[in-house]
Amino acid sequence: MQNTSPTNADLVSRSLSAVWHPCSQMKHYESFPLVPIARGSGVWLYDFDNKRYLDSVSSWWVNLFGHANPRINAALHDQLDRIEHVMLAGFTHEPVVELSERLRDLAPKGLGHCFYGSDGASATEIALKMSAHYWRNTGNPAKTQFISLQNSYHGETLGALSVTDVALFRDAYGPLIRQQATVVSPDARNAGYGESAEAFALRCADALEAHLQRHHTELAAFIIEPLVQGAAGMAMYHPVYLKRARALCDQYHVHLIADEIAVGMGRTGTMFACEQANPPSPPFYKGRGDSTPITSSPGEVRPDGISPDFLLISKGITGGYLPLSIVMSTDTIYQAFYDDKTVRGFLHSHSYTGNPLACRAALATLDIFQQDDVLTTNRAKAAFLNRIAAPISCHPRVKNWRNTGMIWAFEVESPHQDFAQRCFSLGLQNELLLRPMGQTVYFMPPYVITEEEMQLLVGRTLTIIEALT
Ligand SMILES: *Cc1c(COP(=O)(O)O)cnc(C)c1O
Q: Which atom number of ligand 1 is nearest to the Cα of residue 260?
């Protein structure tokens, strides 16, 4: 350890020589340098020269209540003095018990059992294995296949990639993967001309039904990102699809796995996106060809949502502090494993399963939701951002402005092939961390963002759009 603080340039060059950065072509860092971060506070990240960046993507969608949050920090300090880690096979501890109980109370009805993993991809792996093992234990060993939506993203380990349909992440590893079938995505951007998002979602649900009809005897589960397909480019769809998917999965005896790794923890306006499966009327999202900005009602509580058979939670659960994932399942699934024989049990573990520090960070995060009435506050914040963002949503080069809860996205018609990189670089020059996916720019800020910070985010983004169109 050095006892003097490094310089930006020093840290970057050491990083490039020793660290293999994720999701990157390392050579590109020659032209688009790494950003060294010394510390964070609230929505801001700072480098070693105190230059700041507004973290509008919540550090890859994980941060909820800002960097260096005093309340989460205090909980972690306290936990450090008690127990940092103990194995969860044969042992238990207070944070994991309390977190499981509180999630059981918060989650859609019927999800009473929490199984722990370390990250999102491992949650996907666990759910796939658990689903197939359930069918095996209940006398249906042929049900070993899965389906996901087109452009789905459920993680990048080999099993998770088998239900992931983002070519960039998948193609190089194709020969290693037992690729599963996809069904057409209800992504409202693909609605026919003049077709409502709801009508399109119902049409896509018919395609799902046709697939289930043909293949249900070998299908274990349908895995889906409820309401928003994040890595697809924040593809938003009408909630009626979820309601139909639930009914169809029941009808054809196929599990429904709700991957709420990105959309859970209040991100779509309710604690879990599945709570919004009962569609409001009139439809909240206009089909393509309608230039009316989409202003959904973030957080509008629709009490009759759906309960999936499996609910996957990760990313925001620890407030963005520590890796943790949870697979919640129903009593029916749990009971199918309860037996005298070891081989009928669910045989899966990770070294850090149920880590006490991560669970404690999650409990502190849930406390903040409760103490600050976060879902209500977020509704006002989202309405404010929608109001001030009119110059973006109405911009002639901006298409498909859309919003669900605390997620905003739009496409920019730009002549630049490398739009995403240019936007990222210009963002940094303008104190913003923006990380477009192709032509899609999105905001997914920490919930602690203030009105002043939203003004800055919107104003500077508009400047960047102007520069790139
Ligand atoms: C991020 C994400 C994952 C994978 O989580 P990791 O922690 O990155 O492995 C899975 N599903 C969805 C919907 C995600 O957004």
A: 13
pLDDT surpassing 90 at residue 169: no
Q: What is the pLDDT of residues 127-154, one digit of tens each?
A: 999 999 999 999 999 999 999 999 999 9
| Angular region, 266: left φ>0, alpha ψ -120 to 50, beta rest | left
| Euclidean distance between CA atoms 236 and 225, whole angstroms | 10
Task: Give the CB-side neighbour count of residue 420, counting CA atoms within 13 A.
Answer: 8
For residue 205, being part of any structural domain is answered with yes
Q: What is the CATH number for 446? A: 3.90.1150.10
Residue 311 Cβ contacting ligand 1 at under 6 Å: no
Measured at the CA of 252, the angle between CA 246 and CA 253, to 5 degrees, comes to 85
Rounded CA separation 200/236 (Å):
12
Is 17 among the domain residues?
A: no
Of 60, 118, 157, 261, the residue with max ligand 1 atoms within 8 A of its CB, to mutate for a pocket test, comes to 261
How many structural domains is the chain composed of? 2
Angle at 412 between CA 408 and CA 415, to 5 degrees: 160
From 58, 149, 153, the mutation candidate for ligand 1 (largest count of ligand atoms within 8 A of CB) is 153
- The confidence score (pLDDT) of residue 461 equals 98
- Say if ligand 1 is within 6 A of residue 155 CB: yes
